[in-house]
């Protein structure tokens, strides 16, 4: 007879061992915090639902000591792998290409630039091609060997009851036995169909975009040969109007995405995966292009969505969401996992601070506020990319088969146009300059210094509270030790010596003594004569940094800040660690509020023809196995 097993209390129960849940368990461990992870499946995903990790996200892996390890895994494209996006009218077209764009440089080329430009405008890590099935199994290996993580694979979450002190969660294993876990916090990393979210009563706002998609993941040695010999190594091959081909590993594994409004009109159950590959390779106006296919790995229809939760946390504050359980992003700009990776790092340090007793009750409110704002900015950017590309596609399809004529003037115009459009990556401001614009868990400057206004297209390095502190290589360790590597598992006080203010030495001592009294892990880093770092970090004596590399507070050079007063330092820790909230920020027209962004998001969804639903998207048909709750 089926039995219910009670497990010892765990501080943090994570539901879902996809990329975000696995990374969360590893980040908690990095912050010296134990956790328990339950994952419904006994195997890792076979779906190629990620292909690029952006430079900022690679920095998250660097913080966790995983970036180099990932690059050494079989199947992860190596340092010379190109990011070339080849635009083509179809492989049957004798004209070799339509346009060619490189949204990024190869890692090898980036590393050369690292040596030349140590000026705060770059990241310590760079974009990495990596398909999700490889990434997920890499993370699972790390989870299994981590002593701070108790993992249960083949354990499905069913329900939970939350009260002020914690959560009681019921799961079921593959043999049908029930398991009860009690925890201080429950984190739903259970993906787009999140049952944790639905059981918590958290609604999603957003809906599916007016296009359908069908992917086929396959192996073909012949296509690999053709790529190398005829077209040159590429990452994406876009055959406009109907979809694209992705080279996943430079070793013969490819994915085609049949993508567009036409997919919604067709009977996808009748698709033959091989025929679909030929059709995408042949292009919208060419004949199907046949190649030898060695193996079809997986194939399915899916429906891109734009959506965000009303709140990242439950009303009682014990259930939290991260990753796709909290938002759905279309592929445009690759902001899905690349959002979740930062959420989990932020959540991990906050949960660790709470469980370890030095974090206050407002920390999770800060998490919810900070993350929702960033997700809304990401979604708005993704809708903009979708609109631009859809407009272009309409023009391309309207041109008709004459696009195949190399002398056609419209062909030339569209080729020029597409060189300026990138849906493969997000703009620099979106990828690199994520800010905690309205956070109430940072201590803002009082000397009137102005941070540069956020710009979607630019990364503007700054150490202002709420900005991610800039990466620079230390002067004797170019290409080796980054300022990001100095950040510890607790708070980090970066001291630039020699100090301008005579009181800074005293302030350093007070910080340490207050932190010791409150059991706050505070690490002091002294940077002597690092004038370049100091200048990019906007010339302060002291900068206090969060474990996820965001600036919390910095000393002001020209003001009457009482930096040696114990009360003042207590106040900084109170705000930074969620014991009390900073004043709500005055709204200024150039910095929209969350409400403004919600309005803009709703408007943008109309423009791209997305359905704007309230209250969950269970009614949406045409979803893939990886978009719904696991059975
Ligand atoms: C075609 C495609 C391409 C993409 N490309 C990119 C890209 O290049 N870059 C990028 O950043 N993002 C990309 N994304 C988005 C990316 O796939 C997701 O954002 C990412 O997988 C989200 O990770 P997650 O861990 O939150 O959720 P998931 O990957 O969905 O993982 C959720 C996990 O929870 C488990 N689970 C579910 N229910 C339960 C339950 N009841 N009990 C226990 N476990 C449960 C599931 O088995 C699964 O392992 C792409 C998406 C698609 C569809």
What does this protein look like?
The longest helix has 37 residues. With 631 residues, this protein is an alpha/beta fold. The protein is globular, with a radius of gyration of 25 Å. Strands 1, 2, 3, 8, 9, 10, 11 and 19 form an eight-stranded mixed sheet that branches. It has a seven-stranded mixed sheet with strand order 6-5-14-15-16-13-17, with helices on both faces. A four-stranded antiparallel sheet has the order 20-18-12-25, covered by helices on one side. It has a domain of 135 residues: Glutaredoxin. The chain has 17 helices and 25 strands. Helix 1 runs parallel beside helix 10 and helix 11 packs antiparallel against helix 12. About 1% of the residues have low confidence. The chain binds flavin-adenine dinucleotide. The site of flavin-adenine dinucleotide has 35 residues, from helix 1, strand 3, strand 9 and helix 10. One of its GO terms (molecular function) is oxidoreductase activity, acting on paired donors, with incorporation or reduction of molecular oxygen, NAD(P)H as one donor, and incorporation of one atom of oxygen. Keywords: FAD, Flavoprotein, Oxidoreductase.
Fold blueprint:
Blueprint: E1 4-6, E2 10-15, H1 19-30, E3 35-39, E4 52-53, H2 55-63, H3 67-71, E5 85-88, E6 99-101, H4 107-116, E7 128-129, H5 132-144, E8 149-153, E9 155-163, E10 166-173, E11 178-188, H6 195-200, E12 204-208, E13 212-219, H7 221-231, E14 236-239, E15 243-247, E16 253-260, H8 261-265, H9 273-282, E17 295-302, E18 305-309, E19 319-321, E20 327-328, H10 337-355, H11 363-399, H12 409-419, H13 428-432, E21 491-497, H14 504-517, E22 522-528, H15 531-536, E23 542-545, E24 551-554, H16 566-576, H17 594-607, E25 613-614
Parallel strand pairs: 1-11, 2-3, 2-11, 3-8, 5-14, 11-19, 21-22
Antiparallel strand pairs: 4-7, 5-6, 9-10, 10-11, 12-18, 12-25, 13-16, 13-17, 14-15, 15-16, 18-20, 21-23, 23-24
Helix pairs in contact: 1-5, 1-10, 10-11, 11-12, 11-17, 14-16
The structure holds flavin-adenine dinucleotide.
Keywords: FAD, Flavoprotein, Oxidoreductase
Organism: Hyaloscypha bicolor E
GO molecular function, one term: oxidoreductase activity, acting on paired donors, with incorporation or reduction of molecular oxygen, NAD(P)H as one donor, and incorporation of one atom of oxygen
């Amino acid at each position: 007879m089926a039995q219910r097993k009670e497990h010892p209390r765990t501080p943090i129960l994570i539901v879902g061992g996809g990329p975000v849940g696995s990374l969360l368990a590893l980040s908690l461990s990095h912050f010296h915090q134990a956790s328990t992870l339950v994952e419904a499946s006994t195997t890792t995903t076979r779906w190629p639902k990620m292909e690029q990790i952006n430079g900022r996200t690679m920095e998250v892996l660097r913080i966790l000591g995983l970036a180099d390890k990932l690059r050494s895994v079989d199947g992860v494209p190596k340092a010379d792998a190109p990011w070339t996006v080849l635009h083509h009218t179809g492989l049957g077209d004798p004209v070799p290409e339509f346009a060619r764009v490189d949204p990024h440089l190869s890692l090898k080329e980036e590393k050369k630039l690292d040596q030349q430009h140590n000026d705060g405008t770059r990241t310590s890590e760079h974009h990495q091609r990596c398909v999700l099935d490889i990434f997920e199994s890499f993370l699972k290996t790390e989870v299994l060997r981590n002593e701070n993580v108790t993992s249960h694979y083949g354990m499905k979450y069913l329900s939970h009851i939350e009260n002020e002190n914690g959560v009681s969660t019921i799961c079921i294993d593959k043999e049908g036995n029930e398991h009860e876990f009690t925890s201080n916090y429950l984190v739903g990393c259970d993906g787009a169909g999140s049952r944790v979210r639905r059981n918590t009563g958290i609604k999603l706002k957003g809906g599916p975009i007016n296009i359908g998609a069908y992917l086929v993941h396959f192996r073909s040695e012949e296509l690999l040969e053709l790529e190398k010999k005829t077209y040159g190594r590429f990452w994406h091959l876009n055959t406009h109007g109907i979809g694209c081909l992705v080279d996943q590993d430079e070793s013969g594994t490819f994915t085609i995405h049949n993508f567009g409004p036409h997919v919604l009109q067709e009977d996808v159950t009748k698709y033959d995966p091989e025929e679909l590959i030929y059709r995408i390779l042949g292009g919208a106006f060419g004949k199907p292009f046949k190649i030898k296919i060695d193996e079809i790995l997986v194939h399915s229809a899916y429906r891109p969505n734009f959506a965000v939760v009303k709140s990242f946390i439950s009303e009682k504050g014990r259930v939290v969401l991260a990753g796709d359980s909290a938002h759905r992003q279309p592929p445009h700009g690759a902001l899905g996992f690349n959002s979740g990776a930062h959420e989990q790092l932020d959540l991990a340090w906050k949960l660790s601070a709470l469980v370890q007793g030095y974090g206050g009750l407002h920390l999770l409110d800060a998490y919810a506020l900070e993350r929702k704002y960033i997700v809304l900015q990401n979604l708005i950017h993704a809708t903009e990319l979708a609109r631009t590309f859809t407009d272009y596609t309409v023009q391309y399809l309207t041109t008709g088969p004459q696009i195949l004529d190399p002398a056609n003037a419209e062909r030339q115009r569209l080729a020029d146009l597409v060189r300026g459009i990138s849906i493969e990556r997000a703009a620099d401001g979106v990828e690199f300059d994520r800010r905690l614009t309205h956070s109430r868990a940072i201590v803002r400057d009082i000397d009137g210094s102005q941070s540069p206004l956020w710009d979607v297209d630019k990364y503007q390095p700054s150490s202002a509270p709420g900005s991610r502190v800039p990466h620079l290589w230390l002067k004797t360790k170019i290409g080796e030790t980054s300022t990001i590597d100095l950040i510890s598992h607790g708070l980090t006080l970066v001291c630039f010596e020699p100090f301008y203010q005579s009181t800074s030495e005293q302030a350093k001592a007070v910080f340490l003594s207050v932190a010791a009294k409150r059991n706050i892990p505070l690490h002091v880093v002294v940077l002597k004569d690092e004038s370049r770092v100091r200048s990019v970090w906007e010339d302060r004596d002291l900068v206090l940094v969060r474990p996820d590399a965001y600036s919390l507070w910095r000393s002001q050079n020209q003001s009457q800040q009482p930096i040696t007063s114990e009360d003042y330092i207590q106040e900084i820790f109170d705000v930074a660690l969620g014991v009390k909230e900073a004043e709500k920020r005055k709204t200024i027209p150039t910095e929209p509020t969350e409400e403004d962004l919600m309005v803009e998001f709703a408007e943008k969804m109309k423009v791209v023809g997305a359905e704007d639903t309230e209250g969950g998207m269970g009614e949406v048909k045409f979803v893939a196995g990886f978009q719904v709750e696991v059975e």
